[in-house]
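Morning F.,

Quick status update on the modeling queue. The single chain you submitted on Monday has been processed. Sequence for confirmation:
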Amino acid sequence: MKFRGILLTSFQALMQNTRRSLLTMIGIVVGISSVIIILSLGQGFQNYTLENLNKTNKNEDFKIEISFTPNDLSNNTGNNNFSELDIQMIKNISGVETVTLKKTDIYSITKNFIFKQGKYTKSINLSDESNTNLLLGRNYSKLDNEELHKVVVISKDTAEEISPDIDSVLGYGLNVDNELYTVIGISKNDEKQAVFNDEADIEIPKKTYDYYHAGSEEVSSIYLSIQKGYTPSKIANNVVKQLTQAGSMASKGTYSTIDMGNIMDGISKVLSALTYFISGIAGISLFIAGVGVMNMMYTSVSERNREIGIRRAVGAKKNDIRLQFLVEGLILTLISGVIGYLIGFGIAFTISQFLPFKVSPSLSTIMIAISISILIGIIFSVAPANSAARKELVDILNN
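Structure tokens below.
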């Protein structure tokens, strides 16, 4: 029996039981459309998220961040971690297109001090004015900050480390990087307040510090844009290697790379996995629909014993009978898959009109819909088709 004849006969058999065929198709349509809705919206959201993350890199295909971590975090002075020589060295590396500094305005630093009682590491807070609870003296004001007065407010503990007689500490000249600051206030050690606030040992007017200490901006890291045709990870590793060997801060810490491309790729994989996981849950309905297809095919086989017997009598082989029912199942599920895709995409597109992102047809979702339809058609039609093919002509004629 030619395949064209089998195809035509399959359509005729399905049309003879239109109501049963339509009811069976509903399960497949609902299952496919549910999966397509979730996949389409998930891919739309994924593209929208990645576009927003990459918005600052519109004109650059790849952007990599190189950062520096000091070995002694307690002695963070706020100095630049990348010198002009470092920047020039990086620009000369093949594959690097541009180098951009990432500057951070700092308000809290730590420094080492030597007092009569010993050596201490102290935290310094930079602010426009101080508003601490004072034990002695006064807070510095916005006027002190604007007029670059070299004044400080220190904690009671710090004052006691300078001298046991804290009254004598008022007016003391505190050396901060070879600049003398006059102590004008001593704050109380408020334990209750310290629980909720990270109180500094020393407070200095920010503008004063910026003026006398070359600013309080820190180049914490740099951004590299990579020329097309180069592998970003290789360029990044080469830059880190060069900085480790000849960087201005190589002896004081470590350089590392943060590849935004890898981060975005990771986010994309997580979003994709989440979308497919939810789609898999929605696809459980397809299994139930597949059982419905199998039930319909078994019913069709039992009702068409006479047809099977006549075809066997005129020369049809077992494989012809098996193929006949397999094709019927595939036609049923393929038509259902196409309808399910159209309905699912239509619903997803309508929903996206009320969301900040849009959905568009994709080859992947079309292939998923077709593949699922074919799999359901084959898996749930094989057993009924084999049952029909195994029927013996003698048994059919006796019945």
